[in-house]
Amino acid sequence: MPEPNHRPPFQITRDIAGWPLWVLIDHRTVVMLECDACHHRAAWSPGYMAKAFPAYRGKSLEWLAGRLRCGRCRSEYVRLWGA
Ligand SMILES: [Zn+2]
After folding, report:
1. Strand partners, 23
2. How far away, in angstroms, is 65 Cα from ligand 1 center?
3. Is residue 4 part of a domain?
4. Which of 30, 36, 60, 70 is 20 to 30 A removed from 48 (C-alpha atoms)?
5. How many Å lie between the centroid of ligand 1 and the Cα of residue 1?
6. Burial state string for 41-67 with b = 16 or more CB within 10 A and e = fewer than 16
7. Inside any domain, residue 37
8. Which tens digits make up the pLDDT trace of 54-79?
């Protein structure tokens, strides 16, 4: 009997998942994103995150990842990792 697959559509590396956005911004973390569907890539600089998500500074990156869609194809299957 296979396990039910509860994997959320997005994937995020453990080292960046749990941090609030403001911590990632303070640590000058660049967040890399790639869409699993169309392979569109993006990089979020700390400056971009500060400007783009002012209301979510206290939210974790994992929380935000659950609400993301690819900017090109609108897929929810997005991967995130720190650079
Ligand atoms: Zn896409």
Report:
1. none
2. 14
3. no
4. 36
5. 32
6. eeebebeebbeebeebeeebbbebbee
7. yes
8. 999 999 999 999 999 999 999 999 99
18-58 pLDDT, tens digit each: 999 999 999 999 999 999 999 999 999 999 999 999 999 99
Residue 47 lies in domain: 11-82
Strand pairing report for 11-12 and 78-82: parallel
* CA 77–ligand 1 middle distance (angstroms): 8
pTM of the model: 0.88
Neighbours of ion ligand 1 (CB under 5 A): 35, 37-38, 40, 70, 72-73, 75
**2 inside domain:** no
Q: How many angstroms does the Cα of residue 33 sit away from the middle of ligand 1? A: 10
Measure Cα distances from 69 to 2, 26, 42, 59, 80 in Å.
28, 25, 12, 17, 12
Is 1 among the domain residues?
no
